[in-house]
Amino acid sequence: MSDSLRLDDKVVIVTGAGGGLGRAHALLFARYGAKVVVNDLGGSTHGEGASASAADQVVAQIRETGGSAVANHDSVADGQRIVEQALDTFGRVDVLVNNAGILRDKTFHKMDDSDWQQVYQVHVEGAYKVTHAAWPHLREQNWGRVIFTASTSGIYGNFGQANYGMAKLGLYGLTRTLAIEGRKHNILVNAIAPTGGTRMTEGLIPPQVFEQLKPELISPLVVYLGSEQCQDSGGLYEVGGGWVGKTRWERSLGVGFNPHQGFTPEDVAASWQDIGDFADAVHPKDSLEALQQMMANLQKFSQ
């Protein structure tokens, strides 16, 4: 282990850290010197029940190896209580890893309101509650790192996961905005889209592949994103099986119609191939850059 990247005296909250990815994140943060708040309600992957044992076991494992950790058994819906425990135990909070999640997979025509709302409440509302509670403390100390857990199901879509995909891509929208708002306070915000062999993905991935997708192959990226060395913000990183890649939006140059004369659906149909032509595609980094082609078109026809 390199000594060049350390998190000594940093306080890290990892939600959903009683097993799977969260457990791997918590253990690795502790190895790198961080004090860890191991949050886990102890419910099922469907969001049912609760148990203190999952978080307690991870804390015991960290302490056995000389690390510092405390268990928290609150729901992420009570994000303020999770942050308060970090402050009461360690006096501060520096890094937040929003990892807690559930699955309620169903095809859209079979999905009921409960399936939709529970996934939203854990992934989106829960991440909001914890982050919103931690945000003032990160601003005050002028330093912080926040990592959201998105998913390829949100980026690309996945059969039977309308609720999950909605929530996960929503978290990336939150990532992008908080990265903008947090930068001047040295709060960097990034998102990962992990593929790991956990109880949430067991049965969804072929067994021979599942065995190779160890959660421990996700956590090095998360620890880096939570470190002083990381200076990037607003990024989305796909990670799994020992591979890490950065994902970005791509947009065609599009077709400009005369805004003064207007255009018809038939004009759109005639230009459809050019509208979807990704030759010389652009990659807007923010909302201002995203307006460039539209503004250029307006300027073209204003002369």
From TrEMBL:
<dbReference type="Pfam" id="PF00106">
    <property type="entry name" value="adh_short"/>
</dbReference>
<dbReference type="InterPro" id="IPR051687">
    <property type="entry name" value="Peroxisomal_Beta-Oxidation"/>
</dbReference>
<dbReference type="InterPro" id="IPR002347">
    <property type="entry name" value="SDR_fam"/>
</dbReference>
<protein>
    <submittedName>
        <fullName>SDR family oxidoreductase</fullName>
        <ecNumber>1.1.1.-</ecNumber>
    </submittedName>
</protein>
<comment type="similarity">
    <text>Belongs to the short-chain dehydrogenases/reductases (SDR) family.</text>
</comment>
<dbReference type="InterPro" id="IPR057326">
    <property type="entry name" value="KR_dom"/>
</dbReference>
<dbReference type="InterPro" id="IPR036291">
    <property type="entry name" value="NAD(P)-bd_dom_sf"/>
</dbReference>
<feature type="domain" description="Ketoreductase">
    <location>
        <begin position="10"/>
        <end position="186"/>
    </location>
</feature>
<keyword id="KW-0560">Oxidoreductase</keyword>
<dbReference type="InterPro" id="IPR020904">
    <property type="entry name" value="Sc_DH/Rdtase_CS"/>
</dbReference>
<dbReference type="GO" id="GO:0016491">
    <property type="term" value="F:oxidoreductase activity"/>
</dbReference>
